[in-house]
Amino acid sequence: MKHRVKTYSIERKQARYGFLFTVPCLLFFAMFSFYPIINAFITSLTNRRAVGRTWDFTGFENYAYLFTKGNGGFSLLNSLRATGVFTLGCFVPMVVIALLLAVLIMQLRKPGHSKFFELSYYIPAVLSSVVAATIWRIMFQPTGLINQLSNTILFTSGKDYHWLTDNGMLVASTIIVYFWKYIGYFTILFITGLASIPPTIYEAAIVDGSNRWHTFWKITLPLLKPTVMLVSIMAMLQCLKTFSTQYMFVQGGTARLPIDVITMNIYFTGIRNGYLGRASAMSIILFFIMLIFTYLQFSAQKGGEDVEY
Amino acid sequence: MNNQFVGKVKAGEIITYIVLILLVLFTIFPILFMLTASFMDAKQILAMPFKWIPSKEYFTSSSRTFMTNFVKAIRGNNNNNIFFTAMLNSLLVAITCAVTTVFFSALCGYGLAKFRFKGRNVVFMAIMSTMMIPFEAIMIPLYMVTRSVGLMNTLPGLIVPFAISAFGVFQMRQYLLTFPSEFLDASRVDGLREFGIFLRIVLPNSTPVIATLGILSFRNQWDNLLWPMLCAQAERLKTLPLYIAGFAEEKQTDEGALMACAFLASIPMFILFFTLSKYFLGGAAVFESRKG
Known about the structure:
The complex is a heterodimer.
Chain A: H1 2-44, H2 61-68, H3 76-107, H4 111-126, H5 129-139, H6 145-153, H7 167-195, H8 199-207, H9 212-240, H10 244-251, H11 262-272, H12 276-306
Helix pairs in contact in A: 1-12, 2-12, 3-7, 3-9, 4-7, 5-7, 5-10, 7-9, 8-9, 9-12, 11-12
Chain B: H1 2-37, H2 42-45, H3 57-60, H4 68-75, H5 83-114, H6 120-129, H7 135-148, H8 155-159, H9 166-177, H10 181-189, H11 194-202, H12 207-222, H13 226-231, H14 240-249, H15 255-275, H16 277-281, H17 286-291
Helix pairs in contact in B: 4-15, 5-9, 5-12, 5-14, 6-9, 10-11, 14-15
């Protein structure tokens, strides 16, 4: 009896260390995640400005303002549209092509070759977003490399595609930069996902006389569904947060309105123009949009665990 | 019959390689462009047709000193030579964040994976739920807090908000769940204290996940533009992304110097990537951890 009590207390003492080890993280997240998000919500209910010390609670006035007024020419609705167009235009081709590349790489028989392709696709992800945007902005100049390549590929001559000056093309340009930077990253994600499907399943399919095309549609894709879901939502969340590419383009002198994504609007409204309350309201809206997709991601992840091979 | 089958496989393989190589050209050419353009002047960079090899003049002409673009890139627009300060700041911030993220995530992940204390699941869920709070949604309050506690325009101000990541805690916990408990018990019998076990047994035996997490955290900070824009307004605190953004801002900035600057700023990441590439590719380890 005495002995049992003793082990129990040792275990309890040990368990206390476990909690102790999590304390730094708990304090950190309390200070740098929970407090700020609550603070953001409270600030969004005020007319707080960067200058001036006094401010009042104004209820949901900021939200009403954002959904009905222009916010000095850069409205929230425009930002939601810009973010939505960018996200859709970017993550759909990115997921499709990354999946295609991953499947093709997995089929290579020489490990050295697959390694080469993986590394080559991944290199852009190593550059910082600022560098990526800068390179492309120069290549997108009227007499730059991209117009020349487009003319070669599309059999036109001397045509200027207005990559940075036409509103639609400007959006396309930011999508191309982002696609270029992250295609390798998502390809690798898919390869990791594909690698977790046991090869015995493919072998069984091939023995059964299934060809590659058939194997892909009937075996690989259904098994990959949770992975595809997960990667899609990750790509989507990533696109929703885009900032650097758009900011660098605007810095370089392009129009802001077509690419005024929500993060950029928060920055300009809150930091440049000092409307902290209004910017916080935008932050909360962004938070809820992302919350919905994160929830979907977690349920996709859960779904993934249920699959048994 | 057999030959025909082989032929079919060959054709498929060739198409596979063609597609893959086309995509390599797409991902690589902008980087080659950056490298070669950093040795050109603006006229050559925007010349039609574009020539991939920089003209000899650049290296020989006496009027254009060797490496003009690089000199300009380092001097900056105001001739204040803060390039190296920016490089140093970026390295300091990224390395510190990598170290603190690894250390505290491992500590917390270890506590969550190997101890059964009351409220363990609540703690875990609380930490996981912070993954749903994107930085972009809390930058305004962080900005206000940083300003009010006097960390504005300081290195700690740049570092502290990114010192720990919830994803890191998650990854470390998943990894350590499979860590053999007998190891830990044996060390306890040997008289090691709990924290000693963490330092001497757990950390040294977790190098792959530590490397992956450290690199991930390093890259995130190396790439961070938004927070330094808010927190580091003083010249001496600028990080590389801020420096490049400032350099690109001027309407008159010449493209060659800009590319030289981008090239120089990428060197540390290239070195890291080519020496530790397997941990970069391992950065996609969400799936392995998911299995845990």
